[in-house]
Amino acid sequence: MIRLHDLCMAFDDELVLDHINLYINDSEFLTLLGPSGCGKTTTLRIIGGFTTPTSGDVTFDGVRINDVPPHKRQINTVFQKYALFPHLDVFENVAFGLRIAKVPEAEVTERVTEMLEVVSLKGFERRHIDQLSGGQQQRVAIARALVNRPKVLLLDEPLGALDLRLRKDMQIELKRIQQQMGITFIYVTHDQEEALTMSDTVVVMDKGRIQQIGTPEDIYNEPKNAFVADFIGESNILNGTMVRDGVVRMYRREFPCVDGGFAPNEPVDVVIRPEDIDIVPVEQGQLVGTVTNVTFKGMQYDIIVDLGGFKWLIQTTDHSPVGAQVGVKIDPEGFHIMKKSEYSGMFGDYSSYSEEYEELGAAAPDEEESGDEE
Amino acid sequence: MKRQQPNGFFNRFLMALVALFLYAPIFILIIFSFNAGTSSSVWKGFSLHWYGQLFHNQIIMRSVYITLLVSLLATVIATIAGTFAAIGFYAMRRRRRDALMAVNNIPMMNADIVTGVSLALLFVVFFNGWSSFAGWVNSWQSAVVLPEKLSMGFGTLLIAHVMFNIPYVILSVGPKLRQMDRNLVDAAQDLGCTWMQAFWKVIIPEIKPGIVSGALTAFTMSIDDFIISYFTAGSSTSTLAMTIYGMTKKRVSPEINAISTLLFVTVLLLLAIVNIREASMERQGERRRTAAAVPGFTRTSDGKMPVWMRVVAGAVGCGLLAVLIISGRSANARPVVNVCSWGEYIDEELITEFEETTGIHVNYQTAESNEALYSLIAMGGADFDVIVPSDYMIARLIEEDRLAELDYDNIPNFQLIGEQFTHLSYDPENKYTVPYTWGSLGIIYNETMVDEPITSWDAMFDPKYAGQVLMINNSRDALAAALLDLGYDINTTDEAQLTEAFQLLKDAKDNGVYQAFVMDQVFQKMEGGNAAIAMYYAGDYLTMLENNEDLRYVVPEEGSNWFVDAMCVLKTSQHKREAEAWINFIASTESNLANMDYIWYASPNAEALEQYPDYYLELYEEELDEELYNIMALPDEERERCTLYINLPPETLALYNDLWNRLGV
Considering only alpha carbons, which residue of chain B is nearest residue A71? Predict the structure, then answer.
């Protein structure tokens, strides 16, 4: 339905989007996921028509729409911080687009009422915007966009300003609305959990490039490179050598795995998810290390184990004291082998564990628009 | 909290003192605007007379009209331009925006006088350029004839006001834009608006409070601007502030108090509206936020202006419009004559009468002094037709070839001018001038404060009256007093004589003879009995006498200066015929009688001089005091003891300047 073809975008010689190619299907919930400054909001703004790409094409149902202004596109947007009109009440905010389109008054009332019902805001028609909570404002913003019956809805970190609890509720709510309306949602977020929860398709972006496109399961289980592996969930990423199909070598010993298709003895990145590692008694372990840090996380312990100088994160329900010698065991399915990439060696080591973990937890809201100042 | 209590009284006392310091002058002005008498220091009872008088004063009403028109137009233009400029600034990168904001702030900080002078200069330069351009265009084609001579007037005044108003609008719109969510415009476009629709439906409602307060500030600034208007209004236009200033040239009349009070109240009202708006908007925001926290709250107000505020706003708008219409009624007649005279120097009804009988519109301006008038003319920004300079300045203007020869066939009333007032030293062949008034310089004293009647200029230098003497604050007159006292000619160019005169003055000053060097303050001081002796003009003495009967006037035995102010037409005049019609009208016996009665300066019209006592009797039903009349219109033998000033050569003028500076007034 929407196609991005070789899209490039530069602000002041700084390349923000680097040859983006993307197909977006009808009725799909597609998420653009990436850290701040990865180009996801720029991509969204190009689709919305607020920014014109430096080069490349945007097509909508096969028609090039690069130069079509936003008000002529059948696309609506839910903005970061909602961008509701403070001088209008809830009803008038939602009715704004219909009034511009000169829809008859009776139909306006009908459609706005219907839409407020969809977003569970019946009875709030005459409230002023600053009399609403964040979640309510959020829903007004969604209603205001959807009432115009767009073919595509763009959502730019719509949940960023909400607290955790509300965010979880709204995730489910959004998914429900999308299924009810049956239209395409293009969703931008830096929150990997949000992306995995709601999306049909996740597009992981970094440095203006698409790193991987796939279903949430694909992205999680089969990350293409160290960046994706690290950005989606926690990962231990180690250097290894693919001895032959099904056998990977690291720590000077060979481990059985299920991946294949590499050249003999090709250097590779080995990803091992923390939850795929078992702590066992020393004598049963494939490797032996020392516990250097233990954090209680509620459902599990995060245990850092020093294995030959490389610190691993292991998530387990069993407690091991700091300083204890433990054995480590990984099933063949626990290994995910990736080709070397520019990201190799940059992620996956938990030597500076605590800081990095905190950072991930409190990732700042996206401010990637270099044109933005506030 | 409690601990501050002991200081409470002291604090409040200080506050009251500060408030008194700030508002006492205005308060006094307001009180005296209701004074029944003419004095600004002696209270003679409550009256609304001066307010009534205002509305009959053509000059004031016309300047009110000009002020309102220019303020309204400038506000509208500046608000539109400033709003768009602010939007432009807003779209810029921060560094460039900050730099531009600094540039924007400079005109507000800049001294008005610098802004005014530089604008005047710009206009003059442009006009010169334009006149050569227009001349060139007209020389090779005749399809479109461009006017070759442009002059400052309403247009330039408006441009200047727009210019100094724009920064205020930008300053008040800018923050509103910055508070606005950047995505609002995108959101509106996303919902189907073109950029223009988004601008009207979203940006304007969002920044409306900023626009309104910017417009109100701009309007206030325009209404009370004086300095910039003064330099850019040219000669045919005059704002209220300029008119008031012109009126103060002679003295502060209660009419000025009245109009100043009205101006003050207007500005106060505007400021109050701005502040109340801001405060109520803040409160509204607060209320909404708290309301949001209360579930189930239903809004009562719809977030718009309460009814009473709309009514007030509507009433103010209607009032402004009404004043505009009333004061503008008579402002559009043509042809015109531009007259520049002194403040309080004409019976304004004469202007109305002239306009009604001839259909010629009079732009009546005032200058503060001969020197100020001269610089206006020399700068080239003025397009006066008729001016009324004094004798010595006329000589200078003739010398510099700035005056046009008059066609006396068009001025039959010139015949009525007494022959002792024509062919005087400044215009020996009488080709350029028709006298307007004449008078003498003398000593005014309070007879209850001196031992014996004053007869000599000695009194101005006598240590006996130390601290009781007011010396005139103008070098020519002050040195003239000293020269006369020493028995020299007041037009001497002899450096030794002048230095001697200076020394006399300097010694008296050092001995503490002078309470002050004054011009207009002489009225308050003499009327209030704060000084015993002053030197000033005869006509002004008569005004003072009304408020203090103990005052006396004398032309000292050594002789004195007498002066003639005469009407002349500038060489650059574009309305010479109208100018001559005006001069002829003013030279008539009726006009001279009316003027004499109004300004109390003697007329040069022989018939008027003769008929005035009868005229007075008829008008006021009482005899004119002959003694007083002889002060106003000196009998010939006394007048012959006095000398006219002549235009001094440049080196003598320089010496005057130098001596005056050394005196250190």
Answer: B192
Tell me what pLDDT residue B437 has.
93
Distance from CA of A326 to the nearest CA of B (A): 54
- List chain B residues with CB under 8 Å of A50: 186, 189-190
Q: Are β-strands B434-446 and A277-280 bridged in parallel, bridged antiparallel, or unpaired?
A: unpaired
Q: What is the pLDDT of residues A20-72, one digit of tens each?
A: 888 898 888 999 998 888 888 888 888 888 888 888 888 988 888 888 888 88
Judged against a pLDDT cut of 90, whether residue B583 lies above it is answered with yes
Strand order in the sheet with A55-60: A14-24, A2-11, A55-60, A63-64
Q: For residues B82 and B78, give the distance between their C-alpha atoms in angstroms, rounded to a whole number.
A: 5
Tens of pLDDT along B260-314? Answer: 888 888 888 888 887 787 777 767 666 555 544 444 433 334 444 556 666 776 7
User: Which of B191, B202, B291 has its CB closest to that of A131?
Assistant: B291
**CA distance, residue A160 to nearest chain B CA (Å):** 15
| Residue for token pair 């007259």 | B339
Our CA-based measurement puts residue A77 at a distance from the nearest CA of chain B, in whole angstroms, of 7
Using CB atoms, which residue from B182, B189, B285 is nearest to A71?
B189
Q: Would strands B336-342 and B386-387 be described as parallel, antiparallel, or unpaired? A: parallel
Minimum CA–CA partner of A133 in chain B: B292
Report yes or no on whether pTM surpasses 0.90.
no
HEC-encoded secondary structure of B543-602? HHHHHCCCEEEECCCCCCEEEEEEEEEECCCCCHHHHHHHHHHHHCHHHHHHHHHHHCCE
Q: Is B189's CB within 8 Å of A132's CB?
A: no
Residues A192/A361, Cβ–Cβ less than 8 Å = no
Dihedral (Cα; B126, B132, B133, B137), 10-degree rounding = 150
Distance from CA of B300 to the nearest CA of A (A): 10
Crossing angle for the helix pair B94-109 and B154-179, to the nearest 10 degrees: 140
Dihedral (C-alpha) A234, A238, A243, A245: value to the nearest 10 degrees? 10
Structure letter (DSSP) for residue B41 = S
Mutate to test the interface with B, among A42, A51, A71 (most CBs of B within 10 A): A71
pLDDT in tens, A138-192: 889 989 988 988 889 999 888 877 788 888 888 888 888 888 888 899 999 988 8
Which ipTM score applies to this complex? Answer: 0.75
CA-to-CA separations, B21 to B8, B27, B34, B108, in angstroms, rounded: 20, 11, 22, 26
Facing residue for B193 by CB, picked from A71, A76, A84:
A71
pLDDT of res. A367: 39
Residues A330-358 have a mean pLDDT of 73
Sequence letter at residue B57:
N
Chain A residues close to B194, C-beta within 8 Å? 69, 71
Total Cβ atoms within 10 A of residue B191: 30
The DSSP letter of residue B200 is I
In Å, how far from its chain's centre is CA B589? 29
Contacting A with CB below 8 Å, chain B residues are: 93-94, 178, 181-184, 186-194, 197, 201-202, 205-206, 285, 288-289, 291-292, 297-299, 303
Residue from B330, B395, B363 nearest B65 by CA: B330
Identify the residue whose tokens are 């009988």.
B357
The answer to whether the CB atoms of A130 and B187 lie below 8 A apart is no
Domains belonging to chain A, first-starting first, are: 2-221 (3.40.50.300), 235-370 (2.40.50.140)
The C-alpha atoms of residue B651 and residue A34 are separated, in whole angstroms, by 85
Residue B60 has pLDDT above 50, yes or no: yes
Judge whether residue B143 has pLDDT over 70.
yes
> Hey, of B90, B98, B190, B282, which one would you mutate to test binding to chain A, going by the most A CBs within 10 A of its CB?
B190
CB contact under 8 A, B191 and A127: no
